[in-house]
Amino acid sequence: MPNSDGTGQASAKGTDVVRAAGAVLWREGSAGTEVALVHRPRYDDWSFPKGKLDKGEHVLRAAVREIEEETGLVPRLGRRLPTTTYPVEGRTKQVDYWVARAVTQSAFTPNDEVDRLDWLPPAEAERRLSYRHDVDLLREFLRGAPRTWPLIILRHACAGEKRQWREPDELRPLDARGRAEAGCLSGLLHAFGPARPVSSATARCLETVLPYARRVREPISTDPAFTVGETGADQAVNRLRELVEDGRPTLLCTHGEIVSDLVTGLCKDLGEKVPDEPSLRKAEFWVAHIDPSGPSIAALERHAPLKKTVRESVTT
């Protein structure tokens, strides 16, 4: 399990921390699972694709960008892997990792940073890796399911002050901040690949998920089971259970009044420890990576749209 403190923040603290993100990128080869290793001529080492976060960049966006830049492949993030920390030139480097698979096929182009990309069986990859922490990461990858599907529970973005809205509550729209959050969420959620959008039948929830739905070109399904004022805890959890049984990647946008019940019910159903804080702030989301063989939760992580407010809780 990745190191974390009680709030879900990564354990490396202080301002002198270099943040980075990457993945164990895998594919099905002719003889079984293969993982991608990259060679960096500057250090003459072999490691997993990763790179530093740009200033103000979200860790999910950085993971996707760095993998694409180093390998030429567009990844889809799967289950969360342990965060690695190690000293680099008197500072602490903290790297957040995911399992990932490529969704594009393209020829690798060597460059100054990475001059080789090799796909190797895990045993050979372990011998090739230059660092112990990468060997540990590979072993953690092998302990879980490589292929999972995402169930994302999202609380709608900012919709102003409820007490100042005089019209029917279901018509209350996102405010300017909420619209910006919805736009940001579209790109972050897409890191996990396309999913069917399911939403509460309120304007604020529909507007939150609309940019994502347009990106993945999927219609939004509204459901009273997730609509505040039309549902209760049992109804919402029962409907969520049906979505899990479908086995399809799903993005569910709902309300703060319902989120805790959904996350708690999902974890109890699938035999997972309930997070200490299952609730979400506006525009935050949980990603449950579902192992279809169970089904079970292979990992659970939490994010906010802006990097500075990312909070994560990970289970394996």
TrEMBL record:
Keyword Hydrolase: yes
PROSITE patterns in UniProt: NUDIX (PS51462), NUDIX_BOX (PS00893)
Keyword Hydrolase recorded: yes
Keyword tags: Hydrolase
Pfam family, one: His_Phos_1
Gene3D superfamilies named in the record: Nucleoside Triphosphate Pyrophosphohydrolase, Phosphoglycerate mutase-like
Domain named Nudix hydrolase: residues: 16-142
CDD domains on file: HP, NUDIX_Ap6A_hydrolase
UniProt similarity note: Belongs to the Nudix hydrolase family.
Name the record gives this protein: NUDIX domain-containing protein
